[in-house]
Amino acid sequence: MLDMPNIRDTLRAEYDLAPNPDLAAKMQDEYARMARVVSPADWAIHAPYVAAINALKRDRNATILAHNYMTPEIYHGIGDVVGDSLQLAIAATQTDADVIVQCGVHFMAETSKILNPAKTVLMPDMDAGCSLAESITPAGIAEMRARYPGAPVVTYVNTTADVKAASDICCTSANAVQIIRALDADTIIMTPDQYLAQNVAAQVPEKRIVWWEGSCIVHEQYTAQDIREFRDWNPGTRIIAHPECPPDVVAESDFSGSTKGILDYVSAERPERAMLVTECSMASNISDAHPDVEFIGPCNMCPYMKKITLEKVLWSLHSMTTEITVPENVADKARLAVQRMIDLGAKG
Ligand code: 13P
Ligand code: SF4
């Protein structure tokens, strides 16, 4: 657990972090990307942190990989690469930086470390976990293998390194269907997200897919009844769901895709009104680039993603903590599963 009062005192002694409207006014390029969702008063609070982090990034030759669920001031203010889990994993294989700061959750930082054993990978808050990653251990993978002998194990990237190491290949929500179709097996084990597995099974009926019973605490909260009622109250709204939602929610929606898939759909379709059935920050982050789209409706917050703040990122780069480590024998096996996924995706 981070000692925030102490960290705050140390940072304030080193950097000028008081709200600064003049600095905020000078940083209009950054602000323009989030002006629809961040007020000028809030920007005056964020701007000193954004300036300090971006200067430290240059000093340390660091890059920031920021997931689509980060808050707008992180996503637009300090992210060097922004995207879904697959885009961030691929970016981690391509960076020339010495240091990677992962603005996302712990499993994403582990994936970056697995792909870059020689680089320093920093996690601004080690408590940024994930309900899916917590739902399964290597013993769970062994249990599934015993139950379905010979079936390959496809594991969502939202898992710990040792679970990846016990699996045959990884997937993300962007490439799960492609990976399942490409495997030469009739029965396939998917872990740990039961809903992603069921949504994939609906698209690949020729294969028998069996799954672990994990779920995402953000997406499992939506119900088909919510979606039907929302559609009745807001006719004409395009409803776009992440595949971590239960299958009946996806069935009630107009489109389902990874967070990049959601962004691509909104960019291509430009609906007048859209409801994103996913984490709250997704709509905020794409709002300014889509001024003609009104984003409406309920959204759920991921408490793990929201542990990452500008203050913690500044501390992380200032103190070069907390460094992610993965034992070599685990990283070597996990890398095979992640790399197989990336290679298979590259084949198209
Ligand atoms: P994607 O960004 O890959 O769609 O994943 C969503 C998610 O829940 C990450 O934690
Ligand atoms: Fe995990 Fe769900 Fe949060 Fe993503 S949104 S990090 S899957 S709990």
UniProtKB/TrEMBL annotation:
The protein's required cofactors: [4Fe-4S] cluster
Biochemical pathway: Cofactor biosynthesis; NAD(+) biosynthesis; quinolinate from iminoaspartate: step 1/1
Root EC class: transferase
Native source organism of the sequence: Roseinatronobacter domitianus
Family: Belongs to the quinolinate synthase family. Type 2 subfamily.
SUPFAM superfamilies associated with the record: NadA-like
Catalytic reaction list: iminosuccinate + dihydroxyacetone phosphate = quinolinate + phosphate + 2 H2O + H(+)
One GO molecular-function entry: transferase activity
Transferase among keywords: yes
Subcellular location: Cytoplasm
Record protein name field: Quinolinate synthase
Cited NCBIfam families: nadA, PRK09375.1-2, PRK09375.1-4
The record's free-text note on cofactor binding: Binds 1 [4Fe-4S] cluster per subunit.
